[in-house]
């Protein structure tokens, strides 16, 4: 079985086409393939499947075998993969995900996709929609983990996210990230984004991902961080997000939708025995 290794700003994926012969990997298959010592190595496994509602259907399994409803960096990789292999020629591309149909607009130069702008839909702020225990909207509340208090907001941008404001070290992310991910306030667990607001109104984001651990970038997390920072009055509605290997532009439009623009890169191809 052929696969392609891709990444979106360091968030890496194994991408497999299963349009004609559908492939349904088990959680153990995902863990085996994503293992960085004994497998191919990746944050997740992406499958390109046929859809009756859109041009294509995207399925994502995290490196721990769990299923993710949506992935911002993954969908940019998915769109580039599908277009450059001739699976679809429309632009924008309609992609079915468990979080709904997403529209991916491609920037193409000499047949190569150099950037992807994705309509990520509207963020969900009600605690019941995140899901999070309690009622109303979570904006600049306090949460405690391992004896330390954090100021955070929460939102669902396809998957549940926590936006934590304030300075933390890399060691503290590795310490507190797992505890916050599994905090009892979040029955389905939560992605944890640590945010620094920069003097120019941009933000720097480091993420502990649900089901993956520490990753170099998170697209839905960047959207969540930008929206939460804007709601708190720290930034405007168009936010440049600094990540370890580059930047994303996140626009929270007046129609309520979030638009994410950024790159996707192919690394190599191979065969799975």
Quick recap:
The protein has 273 residues and is of the alpha+beta class. The radius of gyration is 18 Å and the shape is globular.
Describe the structure.
By secondary structure, this protein is α+β, with helices and mostly antiparallel strands. The chain has helices at residues 27-34, 72-84, 170-181, 219-231; strands spanning 2-8, 11-17, 44-49, 56-62, 67-68, 93-97, 100-109, 112-121, 141-145, 148-156, 160-165, 191-197, 203-209, 213-215, 238-243, 246-252, 258-262, 265-271. The protein has an 18-stranded mixed sheet that branches. The longest helix is centred in the N-terminal third of the chain and has 13 residues, at 72-84. The model has no long low-confidence stretch (mean pLDDT 97).
Topology order in helix (H) and strand (E) letters = EEHEEEHEEEEEEHEEEHEEEE
Radius of gyration: 18 Å
Strand count: 18
Q: Uncertain runs with pLDDT below 50, 5 residues or more?
A: none
Overall mean pLDDT: 97
> Main beta sheet: strand number and arrangement?
18 strands, mixed
Q: Identify the quaternary structure here.
A: single chain
Which percent band covers the strand fraction? 35-45%
Number of helices: 4
* Proportion of residues in helical segments: 10-25%
Number of domains: 2
- CATH superfamily name of the largest domain? Diaminopimelate Epimerase, Chain A, domain 1
């Amino acid at each position: 079985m052929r696969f392609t290794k891709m990444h979106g700003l360091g968030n890496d994926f194994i991408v497999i086409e299963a349009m004609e012969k559908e492939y349904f990997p088990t959680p153990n298959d995902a863990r085996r393939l994503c293992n960085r010592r004994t497998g191919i190595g990746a944050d997740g496994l992406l499958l390109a499947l046929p859809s009756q509602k859109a041009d294509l259907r995207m399925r994502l399994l995290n490196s721990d075998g769990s299923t993710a409803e949506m992935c911002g960096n993954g969908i940019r990789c998915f769109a580039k993969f599908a277009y450059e292999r001739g699976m679809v020629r429309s632009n924008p591309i309609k992609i079915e995900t468990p979080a709904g149909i997403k529209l991916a607009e491609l920037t193409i130069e000499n047949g190569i996709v150099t950037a992807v702008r994705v309509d990520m839909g509207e963020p969900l702020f009600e605690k019941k929609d995140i899901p999070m225990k309690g009622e109303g909207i979570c904006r600049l509340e306090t949460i405690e983990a391992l004896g330390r208090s954090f100021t955070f907001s929460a939102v669902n941008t396809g998957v549940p996210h926590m936006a934590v404001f304030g300075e933390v070290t890399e060691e503290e992310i590795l310490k507190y990230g797992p505890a916050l991910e599994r905090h009892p306030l979040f029955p389905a667990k939560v992605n944890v984004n640590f945010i620094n607001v920069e003097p120019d109104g941009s933000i720097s984001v480091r993420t502990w991902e649900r089901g993956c651990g520490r990753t170099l970038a998170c697209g839905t997390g960047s959207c969540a961080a930008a929206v939460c920072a804007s709601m708190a009055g720290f930034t405007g509605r168009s936010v440049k997000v600094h990540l370890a290997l580059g930047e994303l532009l996140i626009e929270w439009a007046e129609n309520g939708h979030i638009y994410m623009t950024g790159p996707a890169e192919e690394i190599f191809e191979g065969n799975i025995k």
